[in-house]
Specification:
78% of the residues lie in helices and 3% in strands. The protein is mainly alpha-helical.
């Protein structure tokens, strides 16, 4: 414990994405636009689902939860990137770093689990349509919505204390743009084998389990779709799954490349790029993907927009 107290600094310093001034300005503008699009897109999706009675179904209830997680997930990382990109002082307190690490782990795992639950929802809707209302009842949907948060909280409660018990005596400068677990393992002056085992076990138990659950769900879904005789019917049913498949592929692919990759294959610059994809880019793309591929959502957005315009016209007169 004495060694731990001696080697734990009061502040860490984030290197950010680049040290080139021109690149920093471009990066700031790019991340600012992406963060604004994330907030606007997901808030619009939340409002649309909330105000449209036709979207008060289990699928859109889960989609609303995904939007809330995406807003929170991006907000734990993007503001820090924006501040540090143009700021000379890139320091972050230990308390701030611990809080950020805990929150992003909770939200990252919650999104991973929620995507698997959304695949299960599509499985029930397509493979057991007559029992969908009974299976996906209100009480069960609430339970399904709580599971991602519980799993995320348990995972963070294990990973974060394990990380911060390490002695950081090599350097207090983190070669990353936010407080993520893998870069901290590189700063330890002792062998972080226990942390790596815990990280790989957690990633294997959560990410791979969710991926397999999603894969099994879609095996049954595709089997059910192939039994539909009408090509138009097959296309209509499969189109309801395309958006989810796109999001799952993007998110699971990036997460696995960070947390299931052996240390010998890890690259700092590659890890930064992949981290940007799943912390900033994916939350921005999710509402766009679901809106573009979903006629119900598009129609409700257009309908609500017309109502708002009509309201302002009446007020102006």
């Amino acid at each position: 414990m004495e060694n731990f107290n001696q080697t734990l600094p009061s502040w860490f310093y984030l290197n950010g994405l680049s040290t080139v001034p021109q690149v920093q300005v471009i990066g700031f503008l790019l991340f600012l636009v992406m963060y604004i699009m994330t907030l606007v897109g997901n808030c619009l999706l939340l409002i649309t689902v909330r105000t449209s009675p036709t979207l008060h179904t289990p699928m859109y209830f889960l989609l609303s939860n995904l939007s809330f997680i995406d807003i929170s997930f991006s907000s734990t990382v993007a503001p820090v990137i924006l501040i540090n990109t143009l700021s000379i002082d890139t320091s972050i307190s230990v308390g701030g770093c611990v809080t950020q690490m805990f929150c992003y782990l909770v939200l990252g795992v919650a999104e991973c689990v929620l995507l698997a639950i959304m695949a299960y929802d599509r499985f029930v809707a397509i493979c057991k349509p007559l029992h969908y209302g009974n299976i996906m009842n209100f009480r069960f949907c609430i339970i399904l919505a709580l599971i991602p948060w519980i799993v995320g909280f348990i995972n963070s409660s294990i990973q974060v204390p394990l990380t911060w018990r390490l002695p950081f005596c090599r350097t207090h400068r983190l070669n990353h743009f936010f407080c993520e677990v893998p870069p901290f393992l590189r700063l330890s002056c002792t062998d972080p084998w226990l942390n790596e085992v815990a990280m790989y076990v957690a990633a294997g138990a959560i990410v791979l389990f969710c991926f397999l659950l999603t894969l099994i769900s879609y095996v049954y879904i595709i089997s059910a779709i192939l039994r539909i005789h009408s090509s138009r019917g097959r296309h209509a049913v499969f189109s309801t799954c395309v958006s989810h498949l796109t999001v799952v592929t993007l998110y699971y692919g990036t997460i696995m490349s960070i947390y299931l990759q052996p240390r010998s294959f890890q690259s700092v610059e590659k890890d930064k790029t992949v981290s940007v994809l799943y912390t900033v880019v994916t939350p921005m793309l999710n509402p766009i993907i679901y809106s573009i591929r979903n006629k119900d959502v598009k129609n409700c957005i257009i309908r609500n927009f017309k109502k708002v315009m009509k309201f302002y016209q009446n007020v102006s007169y």
